[in-house]
Amino acid sequence: MAGTVLGIFPPHCESTGTLSVPSTTTAFLPTIQSIEGSAAAANTIRQSSSLSLKKRGEGYGPPLDNISQTVGNTPLVKISDRIAPPGRTIYAKCEFFNPLSSVKDRLALSIIEAAEEDGSLKPGMTVVEATSGNTGIAVAMMCAQRGYPCVITMAEPFSVERRKLMRMLGAKVIVTPKAGKGTGMVEKAKELAEKHGWFLCHQFETDANWKFHYETTGPEICNDLKGMKFDYWVTGYGTGGTFHGAGKYIKENSPGTKIILAEPGAANLIGSGISTERNDDGSPASSHPAFNPHPIQGWTPDFIPLVLEKGLDQSIQDEMVDIPDGAAVQMAQALAKNEGILTGISGGATMWAAVETAKNAPEGSVLVAMLPDTGERYLSTPLFASIEADMNEEELEIARSTPNFILEPSGE
Ligand SMILES: Cc1ncc(COP(=O)(O)O)c(C=O)c1O
C-alpha cells in the first residue's frame, strides 16, 4: 500500500554525502521554487546530516498520475531561538505540506487503499466518515480523485471553513448537534452506513490508520535525521494514529528517543486512568467522564480511540504533557509571527509541549514536534479572534503618512 506511494518520492531522502556548510540551513520546499537567493541557497546542505537538500530548480520528480501521490514526505523545519530554548534544537514536522494541508491526508489514503485492496470498498460505493474536519477534507479529496460519493458527519462546533472545503471537494456534510459531542457524530456515521450499506472509514478503530504512519511518518523522520541526535519526539492525538504508528517506528528504530504525548489539560482522558467502554466494533459505547470541551480542534475526542489505546498498551509514550488553556493558541500565533510557520491550534499545542520539554532537557538535545495542519483552516476560530480585518491605528498612521489613497474608517 505505502510502497507504491514511496516509489515516486523525490530523491531528497537519499543520502548523497556531506559537505562543510554554513550554519544556517534552507529547508527543501518541493513545490515552491524561489528565484530570490537561489544561487546561495541551492547548494546548501543540511548541517551535521549525511542528507543533502534537493536543489531548487531540480523539479519535483516525474509527473504524477494523480494528487494522492503527493501525500507524505513532509519536511522537518528548524525552529529559531526566538522560540526554541538556548542550546536545544527543535524541528517541526510540517504536515501542512500534504496536498490538502493536514496529516489526515495520510489516513484517508491508507484507509481507501486498504479497503480497495481487501474488497470492502467497491467501485461506486459511498464512503462515509465522522470527522472533526481534517479527515473529512482528506477523505473527500480521495473520494473525488477515485470517483466515490462521499458523506461526512461533523459536530456543530467545528470550524465552518472545514465544512465548506468538504463541500467544495464534492462531499455531502451532515452536521450533528453540539450536545451529542464527538460520539454523536460517530454514531450518526454508523447509523447511515448500516442503513444505506455505505463504506464506513472507522478512522478511530482501523489498523490501516496507525500502520500508514508506521510505514511513512516514522521512517521519514528517522531518515531525515540520519546521522543526527534525536532525543524527543512530541505529538498529540486525535485518533492516535500518528502517535501509535510513527511512535512505534521511532521506538523500534531510534530506541534512545523519548516519546512525549500531549493532551489538553481540560480533557485529561489518559491522565484520568479511566478506560473507554467499547461496542463490539471497538467504537466508544459512551462519552468519557474526564472529557471537557477544549480549544484544540482535532485533538482528544470525548473517548479514548481504539487506535490510541492499542498504542498506549504498548507503552510507546515515555512522558505525558498537559496543555494549559490558552497555550496552544498563543504558541500557534508565535510560530506565525516569529517563524513564518502557519499552523493550527494543535500545532501550537504540540510546539508548546516541545518547548516545555526542551527547557528541562539536557543542553544539546534535539526534538521533533508534529505540526498537524495549516493555520488557514482556523479563520473563524479563537486562533484568529484577535486578528482584525480592518486597519488599526498603527496601520492608519502609515496610510496617512503619504498624501494619496487613504481609506479613512467610515463614520470618521
Ligand atoms: C488538527 C489535528 N491535529 C492533530 C490530529 C491528530 O492526529 P491523529 O488522528 O493521527 O492522532 C488531528 C487528527 O484528528 C487533527 O485534525
From TrEMBL:
Keywords: Pyridoxal phosphate
Pfam families per UniProt: PALP
Matching InterPro entries: Cys_Synth/Cystath_Beta-Synth, TrpB-like_PALP, TrpB-like_PALP_sf
Cofactor annotation: pyridoxal 5'-phosphate
One GO process term, biological-process aspect: cysteine metabolic process
Annotated region described as Disordered, given as residue ranges: 275-295
Domain Tryptophan synthase beta chain-like PALP: from-to ranges: 67-373
Family, per entry: Belongs to the cysteine synthase/cystathionine beta-synthase family.
Protein name from the UniProt record: Tryptophan synthase beta chain-like PALP domain-containing protein
Organism, scientific name: Cyclotella atomus
